Amino acid sequence: MSPSVAEGALQTWLAEAATQRQQPPHLELLAEHVLMTGVLSAMDREAATMVNGGPLRLEFWQDVVDFNGNFVHLSHRVKEESHLIPAMLAAGVLPADHEQAIRREHQAAKDLTLSLCDGVGEGDWEQVQRLVSLYVFRMRAHMSHEESSLLSHATRLSTAALARLRAGFDAVEAAALRGRSRLEIRRLAERISSASATR
Fold first, then answer.
1. pLDDT per residue over 95-139, tens digit each?
2. What does the buried/exposed string (b/e) look like for 64-102 if buried means 16 or more CB atoms within 10 Å of the residue's CB?
3. How far apart are CA 145 and CA 151, in angstroms?
4. Which ranges in 16-57 belong to alpha helices (H)?
5. Cα–Cα–Cα angle for 72, 34, 69, nearest 5°?
6. How many CB atoms lie under 10 A from the CB of residue 2?
7. Between vectors from CA 165 to CA 189 and to CA 16, what angle results, nearest 5°?
């Protein structure tokens, strides 16, 4: 999807009140991809700095783990796996092999995130750098794959299915963010991006 569509989706994602959301599910997930892309770029920059002799900055990586663990894997991924994918399979708009590929990609990213937590906790900059390279590469490819094969077909769901998704997405986000607002998540992503950009 085009950058202007993605940026517009992000602005709507930020503006909608938690109790009155109307944004279509595929645009909500696309908006979240915009935030994720910024964090991936920041991770890439920070890892490159470490390769060139920079320190392992624990505060930066703790923010990355917070964003990827609590937002990407507990909210974004669950919206897709527990709600969007089943709805698309039930409607016959997603081939089963695409479902399995997406679930494998999600599990690989989750495993890398858990390993990254360990590397950060141990202060092992070489492990962190290696894991970041893998994570960034896989996630960029994964998001591109999702946008072309998953999100682009979500528009074919019925109005009733979209309403169920809206309710499901809201419940997932409320449980995962535990009182944090979308604005706080955006600020976390911006803090990560600006911290890597100012080095």
1. 888 888 888 999 998 899 889 888 888 888 888 889 999 999 999
2. bbebbebbbbbbbbbbbbebbbbbbeeeeebeeebbebb
3. 9
4. 25-51
5. 15
6. 7
7. 45
**H-run or E-run covering 78:** helix 77-78
SS3 of residue 199 by DSSP: coil
Structure tokens, 115:
């390993």
For the stretch 42-62, pLDDT in tens is 999 999 998 888 888 989 999
Nearest to 69 by CA among 147, 177, 145: 177
Mention every residue, 6+ apart, whose C-beta is less than 8 A from residue 145. 101, 102, 105
Domain extents for the chain?
A: 3-197
DSSP string for residues in 103-141: HHHHHHHHHHHHHHHHHHHHT-HHHHHHHHHHHHHHHHH
Looking at residue 57, its amino acid is R
Phi/psi for 166 (5° steps) reads: -55, -45
Neighbours of 17 (CB within 10 A): 7
Pick the CATH number of 3-197 from 3.30.40, 1.20.120, 1.25.40, 1.20.81: 1.20.120
